[in-house]
Amino acid sequence: MNDKQKLLLVEDDPSFGAVLKDYLAINDFDVTHAVDGEDGLAKFKSSDYDLCILDVMMPKKDGFTLGKEIKELKSEQPIIFLTAKNMREDVLNGYKIGADDYITKPFDSEILLHKIRAVLQRHSADEEKFEQDEFKIGKFHFNAKLRQLQIGSTSHKLSPKESELLRLLAVYRNDLMPREVALTRIWHDDNYFTSRSMDVYIAKLRKYLKDDPNVEIVNIHGEGFRLLISE
Fold first, then answer.
1. What's the Cα-to-Cα distance from 127 to each of 7, 122, 132, 171, rounded to whole Å?
2. Strands across the sheet containing 215-220
3. Which helix (H) or strand (E) holds 192?
4. pLDDT for 161-200, tens place per residue?
């Protein structure tokens, strides 16, 4: 069984790509090398990766375009961009797409290794939060695994999507739960129709939670929702 963390390296320079792949493999990563943006997207769709390392300047499809497409398929996917340019606009563009980090060529391989490990560690901690099953929400006790929301002697059995949505809200409690995070994690899509569907589930959760006046779900227009809990 291969328990190494999987990296997708998309780099069109064959010699540099081969050297970087070997270096990362020596450091105990399972590395898949794609030679251009289109090849990178195909390989991303065919497997799951812990991190994507994308060169920006590539034929057929540049790294920023590939990064956007990857984030549309999996919003929480960690990405590091590689570039030969050090232009402020490029750096800002990368972070707007959702880059976790950015490194300019030529770079010290050990610095890249440090950045990779830091990003993976950060995302691993985030995923542990998303796997939490039991929550105290004001006067409610919520068991996401059993899909049960209880207050006093009153118990609500939630549907799978209601339960997953409330779990996400509880993870982000008192903070913004971005709309796209919920849509891609639960519905695996963030189009208009799934967005409207999520609004219906939010309305259902509000009905369940109305028994505690200190708990409310607030809509942050165009951004997402906040589960506000007044202690």
1. 17, 9, 9, 11
2. 176-178, 224-229, 215-220
3. helix 192-209
4. 999 999 999 988 898 888 877 887 787 666 767 788 889 9
